[in-house]
Structures are given as C-alpha cells and as structure tokens.
Amino acid sequence: MKLNSRREFLTTTFAGAAALGVAGKSPSFFASPRSAGALAIQGGSPIRTTPFTSWPIIAENDEKNWHDILWHKQWCRWSAKPSSVLQFEEAWKSMTGAKYCLATASGTTALITSLNALDINPGDEVIVPPYTMVATIDAVLLQHALPVFVDTDRETFQIDANKIEAAVTSQTRCILPVHLGGSPANIDEILEVARKHNVPVVEDCCQAHLAEWRHQKVGTLGALGCFSFQGSKNLNSGEGGAVLTNQQELIERCMSFHNHGRVVPPTGYWGTPMIGEGVKFVMIGTNCRMPEFQGALLLAQATRLEAQSRTRTENATYLTKLLREIPGITPARMYDGCTRNAYHLYMLRYDQEHFSGLPRARFVKCLKAEGIPCHEGYRPLNKEPVIEVMLNSRGFKRIYTEQELANYRERVHCPENDRLCDEEAVWMFQTMFLGTHTDMDQIAEAIRKIQKSAGELTRS
Q: Which are the contacts of 373, defined by CB distance < 8 A and separation ≥ 6?
C-alpha cells in the first residue's frame, strides 16, 4: 500500500514497533543464526526483532520548558514576557545564518505566509515539483494560482532544474523548489533561471533542517525559506513552522499577514495592542501565529538537533557504502553543491530486474517483515484528484478560460516522476538513523537476504 504523507508513514512505522512489543532505545545486537534462511514473510526468522529509535526523543529540558509556560499562564506570544517563540526565532536565525525569522503555526502556513508576502494572486503560476507532500501545492491552490509541475530528476528525487526554464511563462511569479528528504535541490541552477526571468524563489525546507548548499544553510538562498516542525520532522514541536528571509520588507509582510494583516509598527512588532487606537489592518491576513508551548518545545529540542544531525549523516553515509554493493539498489544521488544532507528521509531506487522480477510492492512487504520499516514514497502529485477538483471548480473557471485549463493539463506531464513513483522509490525514515552501525548492517543484510530468495518468491 502506498501512503501519501509522512504522517501516515510515521504512524505505520510506530504501529509496527508497538506490535513488536518493545519501545524506546535502539540497541546494538546481531542477527539470529537462522536469519540467513527462509524469509520472514515465508515464516522464517526476521533479521531484526527490535524497533528502531522512538521519536521524539525527550529530555528534562523539554518538560521544564513546557511546565514553565503552563504555569506562567501566558500561552500566546502576543502577551508573553519573555516569549519562548521570540527566543526560538532568535535561536533559529543563529543556527541558520538568516537575518530574519518568523515562527508560524505549521510548515504549511509558513508557505502560505510566504506566497502572500510575495503577492501571489489568481492567474499567477508557481513552478513546483511533482514529488513532494501535498502541502507544497496547497499553498499555491489557496491563492487560486496554478501549480506548474516540472519533472523529477530520478537520480536525486529532486525537481529537475534543467527543465525549469522551459516551464516559465509570462504568468510565472514564483519558483518553489523542495529540498526533498533533506537533500538540497540544485539551487544554483534554480537561482540562475530565477534571476534571468526576475522571479523570486521560495525554498520549501520543511524536510531539510540544517541542510547546506555550498556550506550555506538552505532557507537562506532564495527570497524566503520555509520550515516545518510537525511531529515527524527532525526538529519537532508536534506542529509548527518558520519563515526565513534576509529582506526586511518581506519579513514585515510576513509578520503582517500571519497576524491578520496588522500593520508592523516601527517600534517593534510584539508588545503592541491587539485592538484599539493605533491598530491598523493594512493587508489581507489570517492567524498563523505559533503558540508559546510550541516555542518552548522547540527551544529544548533544538539543543539536540546538531548532534542528532551528525549521527544521521554518519549512519546514512555508512549505509550508502553498504547498499552500493547490492545490485539493483541505488541510493539517491546528491548534487555536487550539497555540503550537508539532513536525511529526513533516506531514499533509494529499487530495480526489480536484479531481484528476479520481484515487484517493488512485494520487496517492501518482505523488508518490513524482516523488521526494517520502509515505504514506497509519494504518489505523482500532478495526478492527485485535487488537481481536477481545482480545474473544475467555479473559482478556477472564472479565472481561467477552458483553453487555458486544457493547455495546463498538457503542460504538467512528468514521465520520469511517474516511473519513480510507480516502480522505483523506497524510503526509510530519519529515526532509523539515530542508532548504530549495527542497525545499518541489518538493513543491508535484510536486503541481501531478500535478493537471495527473490527467485523463489517470484515463482511461488
């Protein structure tokens, strides 16, 4: 079964762990002597019988920070003194090197806030990848703008930057690349096209905490960068998000939009009255504010992010070396400019020809049975039912002619992405990379075990 969101994957992964009856830390242990025999899906012993590291990891500072907010009784950042959300914004600026940071209620609202700051309107076009979470295009659709899909570079799982310029039209108002799985998209090429056509770039960094392009943190390369702190993310507060920018005008527009369009006074944003004399509403806006509880959790979780990121990188690098020795398994390639991968997802391509024709869906079931949680990844976003719902809606039919909508349908075919989604993609999740090299050895051992018995499976 394909799951279409990271939350669904997280839920099924944890459910599998609970079914094994063990929770908590990821121990180091070796496979059973019987593991090299029959596959677990055929009744044999699984390679791994203990779940990977549980998530989130909680320490004393999480409880203390949250407890302090509870009893301080100032749960909204508007009135809180001091504000944990404001403190987190300062911390995230420092960690990323951005000039400005605004915390939001979610990664989705970070994207919505950014597009509104750029004045994306009905009739505009925003270039997006077809291999991403639906939130990326939700932000575009809510503006009644058209998400224009550019095909995927299957080797990297990222938007194919070499195909972006061909998708640019006079209606293009933004390029919205996603640093999928924590690996940066080819941002050099993307920025070059953006400069040539004078359109801004909004980086979707929702899966890319502390990832780097040429030693600069993602989210600081385009006009705006958006992050998510939803429960599955490498930096987690249950729900939450943030916008980064180096432009004062843009951060002020973001601040105004995410707070019902209130004017941002020269004396400072916070501490001004919610209503009354001097309060003006200067743009269309909504409430995307982050509560103090989320700010407190993020301040605590952020103290462990760097060390956790290093552990993920070390384990992912080790696993990549192991998997490159297995025919038919190809870890996602990183672009030369990637100097740090956040490894929110570990992505690989599966070639059934090297597994005796065993279909990917069966391979994934076998791998799960061996105690290795995995996932078939996203469906083609350009083929989701929401696209036709959008095109057939009253609002879009008022904005676009029938010919424009027909042309749009012809423009958004993504054959490379179809192949990745339908046949090749396999994911593993970030919590699996917070353990030891023994954990990585078991992942590789399980794949080799399946490959050895694949012929028998396809004949049965």
A: 12, 13, 16, 17, 52, 428, 429, 432
Give the domain range for residue 12.
Answer: 6-56+305-377+419-459
Distances (CA, A) of 64 to 55, 67, 400: 19, 5, 53
**Exposed/middle/buried for 103, CB within 10 Å: 0-12, 13-18, 19+?**
buried
pLDDT digits (tens, 9 = 90+) for 342-357: 999 999 999 999 999 9
392 exposure class (CB count in 10 Å sphere: 0-12, 13-18, 19+): exposed
Note whether 420 and 44 are within 8 A (CB): no
| pTM of the predicted protein model | 0.90
List pLDDT tens digits, range 273-329.
Answer: 555 566 788 899 999 999 999 999 999 999 999 999 999 999 999 999 999 999 999
**Residues contacting 31, CB < 8 A, separation 6+:** 47, 48, 442, 445
Q: Which H or E run includes 313?
A: helix 292-323
Q: Is residue 358 pLDDT above 80, yes or no?
A: yes
Same domain for 144 and 50: no
Q: Is residue 413 part of a domain?
A: no
C-alpha 31/C-alpha 29 separation (Å) is 7
DSSP state for residue 375 in the 8-state scheme: B
